[in-house]
Amino acid sequence: MSFRSLPKVELHMHHEGAAPPEFIRRLAQEKSVNLSGVFSEDGSYAYRDFVHFLSVYEAATQVLQTPEDYARLTRAILEQSAEHGVIYAETFLSPDFCGGGDVGAWREYLHAIREAADEGERDTGVVLRGIVTCIRHFGPDRAKPIALCAAETAGDWIVGFGMGGDENKGKQADFGYSFDMAREAGLRLTTHAGEWRGPREVRDAIEDLGVERIGHGVRVIEDLALVDVLAERGIVLEVCPGSNVRLGVYPHLSAHPIEKLRERGVKVTISTDDPPFFHTTMTREYDNLARVFGWNEDDFLDLNRVAANAAFCDEATRARILERL
Ligand code: HPA
Ligand code: ZN
Predict the structure, then answer these.
(1) What is the pLDDT of residues 257-288, one digit of tens each?
(2) 17 lines ligand 1 (CB under 6 A)
(3) pTM score, whole prediction
(4) Where in the chain are the domains?
(5) Which of 156, 291, 299, 322 is at 20 to 30 A from 143, Cα to Cα?
(6) Cα of 195 to ligand 2 centre, how many Å?
(7) Which residues in the chain land under pLDDT 70?
(8) Are 142 and 173 in contact (CB under 8 A)?
(9) Distance CA 159, CA 144 (A)
């Protein structure tokens, strides 16, 4: 049995990371951008490890040069999401790639993305919202103009602020200024933590940045006292099991802590991260979790309710999503 048509809520996906390789190849051809090293012989994205993945990701992103390119990508994302039963998704958008951190340029990109999302919602029924994201390995000084872009466009569509990139660089606290600015603008907060570094990073994310959701967070399992803190405070984990296995955080799904975290009362949700990079889809994630952990439709309904309640959208949108689950 496949869970393709089951309604799903996805909270953790990178906008550029959802671009199918064919989409990137087509744009590269149109713009005569040389993407040698980005693809393997079979046409999929080629990378050796996480740090190399980040550099291939950034190389592929070079073909996205205009607001219209992002509008096209947004339409492709919504079609892909709809094919896998997703009814609500949040994607990470990086003004670093959309106008280089300039607020005026970012507004133009956002306008195009939003128009495409509204049109896509009418066609597919998928509701999309954006989380502005700074990039950790670009450093805290470059995060500040990104937080300003976020603050200036905070509202009913840009609903959150977050951080991706290389978790092994610097500390969460280095980005406190940017997260404070975003919080003061009314944005909800999440950050990648506890994927490459251990529980300490998850603690820092909560204590130093005050986030209410954590991207991945799975290595918190190495500190059960902290697992209990997450459960008590209702901190939500955006778990991406296929990404974790593909990048070697865990050798296979049966070694993944998602089941243990859930049993211990942590609010877990399921996402794809960068689906074509990790050869995954929401359907594949659900099918694999069902096979390995025996989860059924009721388990997934529970998880999707958790995700809908943790979504950063306004309450009217949340009510619409909950009704469709
Ligand atoms: N992890 C961290 N940073 C990222 C990712 C990811 O999967 N994709 C794009 N930036
Ligand atoms: Zn991610």
Answers:
(1) 999 999 999 999 999 999 999 999 999 999 99
(2) yes
(3) 0.98
(4) 8-22+66-324
(5) 156
(6) 9
(7) 1
(8) no
(9) 18
Q: Two tokens at 306?
A: 């958790």
Centroid of chain to Cα 308: 15
Tokens of 205: 């994310």
Q: Is 242 in the pocket of ligand 1 (CB under 6 A)?
A: no
CA torsion angle 60 64 70 73 (round to 10): -40
The amino acid that residue 19 corresponds to is A
| Ligand 1 atom with least separation from CA of 247 | 7
Structure tokens that stand for 162 in this block = 């977050």
For 160, which DSSP code? E
Calpha distance 33→237 (Å, rounded): 37
The reply to whether ligand 1 has any atom less than 6 angstroms from the CB of 165 is: yes
Ligand 1 site, residue 95, Cβ cutoff 6 A: no
CATH architecture of residue range(s) 8-22+66-324: Alpha-Beta Barrel (3.20)
Per-residue pLDDT at 99:
98
Which entry of 90, 195, 238, 285 is annotated as an active-site residue?
195
- Told to judge if 58 belongs to the known catalytic residues of this protein, a careful annotator would answer no
Q: What pLDDT does 157 receive?
A: 98
Q: Is 164 in the pocket of ligand 1 (CB under 6 A)?
A: yes
Give 125-182 pLDDT, tens digit per residue. 999 999 999 999 999 999 999 999 999 999 999 999 999 999 999 999 999 999 999 9
- The structure tokens listed for 262 are 């859930």
Closest CA to 240 of 285, 294, 191: 285
Residue of 52, 136, 192 to test ligand 1 pocket, by largest number of atoms within 8 Å of CB:
192
- Taking the centre of ligand 2 as the mean of its atom positions, its distance from the CA of residue 79, in whole angstroms, is 20
Nearest to 161 by CA among 135, 200, 139, 138: 135
Å from CA of 177 to ligand 1 middle: 22
Pull the structure tokens for residue 101.
């951190």
